[in-house]
Amino acid sequence: MSESLLLKPYQPELKADWDAVVGSSINGTFIHTRDFIAYHGNRFKECSLIFYWLGKPVAVFPAEYSDGHVFSHRGLTHAGWIVCKDLEEGQLEQILNTTFQYFERLGFQSLEVRSVPDFFCLGSNSALKTSIQKFKPEIVSKPIFHATPLPFEISDRGRKWGRKKAVCQGLRVAETDDFEGFWNNVLEPHLWEKFQNKPVHQLKEIRYLKSCFQEEIKLFAVYRETEMLAGTVLFLQNKVVHCQYIASTAKGRESRALDLLFDELLDKFNVDKSYLSLGTSLDARTGKPIPSLVKWKESLGGQGVEGLVLRWEGGEGRF
């Protein structure tokens, strides 16, 4: 390790340094802050790292381990090395090399990273990507994310007709803090009916996260009078509006509630944000894309953006 670079395993007393890195990074968002990571409690065995260059915190690596394998925190949608904007390739390579040496010295068998997609980054992350490739990772998978460049105006005839139908039936869109109503009456029934699945976040967890991130986490819902018919939970991450959850009741689908919702969301965020992130379209049961979901996201301007899941094996000279 260079005398200029210092690695520290994360400890609670380093929280301010950690969050300072995330706040000044090219590829970190509020989901990489310690308050967000803390909602997992003891669910994961954490082995996160923080890096200092000449005494200044410059990079963090959110990580956890299981059965001798390290992951760039499976409790986060994506992570890897979160790095400050002014780091050069040589510094980045030292940070990566030090990471590999540290985990290999501890006897871990592999390291897996789910990289932050490019559209979440505030600046160019080409130096980081180049540095990562120099360590010859194995490509585990290339998940496709759908993201709509903003501003965007819906032109799909079906979506435009659906919005008119929703308006004619008296539906309205409103921001709300009624996460309980959305979870119990819309989201959980929707996920179970469509995919036999449950939300990643429990109701108490999303309430905790909302209390920590009042401006970053928003719930927008569609109502007929006082009845909630559909909604989406948004994570506002840098220049991106990310749809963490999207769901509708049977009445909402019949009334085309989501067509109204997304037309109004685009109108709201077209000026201030650069992307609407619609997530992946994979069926958790099969791991394959759901064609109808892909088509729906494309009708909202969603373009396929390739992500990367990378792995390094220990004991083969790669660490």
What's a quick, concise take on this entry?
The protein is of the alpha+beta class. The chain has helices at 15-23, 34-37, 89-105, 126-133, 157-168, 179-195, 203-212, 250-255, 257-269, 291-299, and strands at 5-9, 45-46, 49-53, 56-61, 64-66, 69-71, 82-83, 110-114, 138-141, 144-149, 171-176, 217-224, 227-237, 240-248, 275-279, 303-306, 309-313. It has 2 domains: 5-143 and 307-313, 3-Layer(aba) Sandwich (Aminopeptidase), CATH 3.40.630.30; 151-273, Gcn5-related N-acetyltransferase (GNAT) (Aminopeptidase), CATH 3.40.630.
Please name the defining characteristics of this protein:
7-stranded mixed beta sheet; alpha+beta; 2 domains; single chain; 28% strand; 10 helices; 6-stranded mixed beta sheet; Aminopeptidase
Structural topology:
Layout: E1 5-9, H1 15-23, H2 34-37, E2 45-46, E3 49-53, E4 56-61, E5 64-66, E6 69-71, E7 82-83, H3 89-105, E8 110-114, H4 126-133, E9 138-141, E10 144-149, H5 157-168, E11 171-176, H6 179-195, H7 203-212, E12 217-224, E13 227-237, E14 240-248, H8 250-255, H9 257-269, E15 275-279, H10 291-299, E16 303-306, E17 309-313
Parallel strand pairs: 6-8, 14-15
Antiparallel strand pairs: 1-3, 2-5, 3-4, 4-7, 5-6, 8-17, 9-17, 10-15, 10-16, 11-12, 12-13, 13-14
Helix pairs in contact: 3-4, 5-9
